[in-house]
Amino acid sequence: MILTFxxxxxxxxxxxxxxxxxxxxxxxxxxxxxxxxxxxxLVNRDLLIDMGPExxxxxxxxxxxxxxxxxxxxxxxHCDHLEEKLLGFRGAWFGREMIEPVLYAYGNxxxxxxxxxxxxxxxxxxxxEACCMQTVHPFETLQAGNYSVTALPAIHAPGEExxxxxxxxxxxxxxxxxxxxxxxxxxxxxxxxxxxxxxxxMDCTLGAKNVTDTYHMGLRDNRVIQERLNxxxxxxxxxxxxxxxxxxxxxxxxxxxxxxxxxxxxxVWDGMEAEI
Length: 276
Hints:
- It is a single chain.
- The protein is of the alpha/beta class.
- It has six helices and 14 strands.
- It starts with a strand and ends with a strand.
């Protein structure tokens, strides 16, 4: 399973558009791994998690054919995770000779409402037919080609059912994508009990800061999850723990990467590929 991190930042990105803090100024100066667009993950070129505002440009930058994506799983409806207007260019004369004629999209009720409203507003014939939206619910497992994808509850976005996703393929590989959330719920730990995770991708909005946030995590919280999963036998020494969804003002790439490495975790960057 090939994981491509198309974006690894929090909602404001790094550097923040209007921010002049030392971290953002340094990111503008150094570029490279210091720059972070809004978080999204591509699995094997055909399954995408989240479709934020940089999706188009990142697909061009990294040589990704978006028409090859067949499955789209949205974590929640916030604008840094869902730019539904992009779907108005899928099909008709905007998107010709697409590799996959239909995109199967999944998300909560608010996600479904935003996507369906956008598709209904499209005038060009063929746009609505190029996307099929399905509403999903907590602990529901969906079959998406070679993948089994389970929507698990995130602690985030009051007023809607935000999700993290467990992705399992037919080769026996298993990845937990847990961004924009606080710690895992007890029901999630219970659901994962008896499974083995090859990779755990965790929200690290707070970086190495020693602060508490109900709806986000940092390295301190990531360590709690790592230890809990290891103690339950869900993860082991071969499991990769990857940290993403990094906010500005939490330190630069080199500093956070060293902090993560000391805990047996890896800090990801925009454009990073990981083979699981």
